[in-house]
Design goal:
Number of helices: 1
Largest sheet: 8 strands, antiparallel, barrel
Strand content: over 45%
Distance between the termini: 26 Å
Length: about 140
């Protein structure tokens, strides 16, 4: 799987902005932003990418990435063993969308499929000439 970082997340989340709320139920319940506060560790990623007509699939457990969401709307991301290289940004939740703006002002968005006190599931999609889909599961560790 490609390196998971803010720029990657920005790209995948931006795609979700264009997707709208087509996969949401009619109840329009907003996500409770306070549930997101804390440190989350990547647990699992499943998806595919079609680029230049070639498809690459993945379905892997991965605990190498971490995200931290603060009450003041800031966030950080780092890879295990590289805490000194943290990337910083800002986030917000609008409806069922998690929007992240990284330090380079790149905006990304993902659909929050599930958010509980200890589990975060995000979905991203991109379609067009090339296609991308990822379903990512995080576990809260702090």
């Amino acid at each position: 799987m490609k390196t998971f970082n803010f720029k990657w997340m920005a790209g995948m989340l931006l795609v979700m902005l264009c997707m709208g709320l087509s996969s949401c139920s009619d109840d329009d319940d907003d996500v409770d932003p306070s549930s997101l506060i804390g440190t989350w560790q990547l647990n699992h990623s499943k998806g595919y990418e079609i680029y230049d007509g070639e498809r690459e699939d993945w379905d892997e457990n991965d605990n190498s990435m971490f995200f931290r969401f603060e009450t003041d709307g800031t966030c950080s991301e780092w890879e295990k063993g590289y805490e000194q290289d943290k990337e910083y940004g800002k986030y917000q939740i609008k409806g069922d969308k998690l929007i992240v703006i990284d330090s380079d002002s790149e905006r990304s968005e993902a659909t929050i499929k599930k958010l509980t006190s200890n589990r975060l599931e995000l979905e991203t999609k991109e379609s067009g000439t090339d296609e991308y889909y990822d379903y990512i599961v995080f576990i809260k560790i702090q």
